[in-house]
Design goal:
- The protein is mainly α.
- 67% of the residues lie in helices and 0% in strands.
- It has eleven helices and no strands.
- It has helices at residues 2-11, 19-23, 58-71, 75-89, 95-109, 113-126, 131-143, 147-160, 165-177, 181-194, 199-216.
- Helix 7 packs antiparallel against helix 8, helix 7 (131-143) runs parallel beside helix 9 and helix 8 packs antiparallel against helix 9.
- The two termini are 24 Å apart.
Length: 217
């Protein structure tokens, strides 16, 4: 279960190396990134008569995408919307922040956790309102079993983006692993409130609900 939860959380995260190219600035001698770890950011489907165009502004796009995600019951289509949301989360609006985030991702790929944390620390100092920097740092702490630090960073992420389903999944996983089953169930239900078709959250919530019902019997 522990390995499954780590993989489930990792699957919620998109890589960052393509971001520097969108800013027209290349990092100096970047560490190579395995091809499988650096797919291009998802491209939103072209608008059709049944799918209106997204708003031009970042906040408007996120609100529209979350509205679609909440209504979508098909897991595959919901995953496509979730990928669009994650791509939006990666847009910091700053070439400097994007470069720091890219290099942090490369450091993680090279298993240089200390460097990745230092880069994310810099990003957070420069842009404390950018949720994804907090989320990425939380993910590193979680992977290294530093739950207190990970939970603190998840809380900072959720202050800035309460709908961050990847951070919520990580928080629920940690709560479950330390035996806080009722809190974990509540957190999985928060995930499902914004991403109803996420099967990992559905399965985890059902399992915990059944277990807690058995405890009360």
């Amino acid at each position: 279960m522990r390995t499954f939860l780590r993989l489930a959380l990792a699957a919620c995260l998109l890589p960052l190396p393509a971001l520097a190219q969108t800013q027209g600035t290349e990092p100096a001698a970047p560490a190579p990134t395995p091809p499988s770890a650096a797919p291009a950011l998802p491209v939103p489907p072209a608008p059709t008569a049944s799918v209106p165009a997204l708003p031009a502004d970042h906040a408007g796009r996120l609100d529209a995408l979350f509205a679609r995600l909440k209504k979508e019951s098909d897991p595959a289509r919901a995953e496509g919307i979730a990928n669009q949301i994650q791509a939006e989360w990666l847009q910091s609006g700053s070439a400097t922040i994007d470069l720091l985030m890219q290099r942090a991702t490369q450091a993680v790929a090279a298993k240089n956790t200390a460097s990745a944390l230092d880069l994310l620390d810099q990003a957070i100092v420069l842009r404390p309102d950018f949720p994804e920097a907090w989320n990425r740092r939380a993910t590193i702490h979680y992977a290294d079993d530093r739950y207190t630090l990970a939970i603190a960073d998840v809380e900072e992420t959720l202050k800035r983006e309460p709908r961050h389903f990847a951070s919520l999944m990580g928080l629920a996983a940690m709560q479950e692993e330390v035996g806080r089953s009722r809190e974990a169930l509540s957190t999985y239900l928060r995930v499902l409130a914004v991403y109803p078709a996420l099967k990992d959250a559905q399965d985890a919530a059902l399992k915990l609900s059944d277990a807690l019902a058995g405890d009360r019997a």
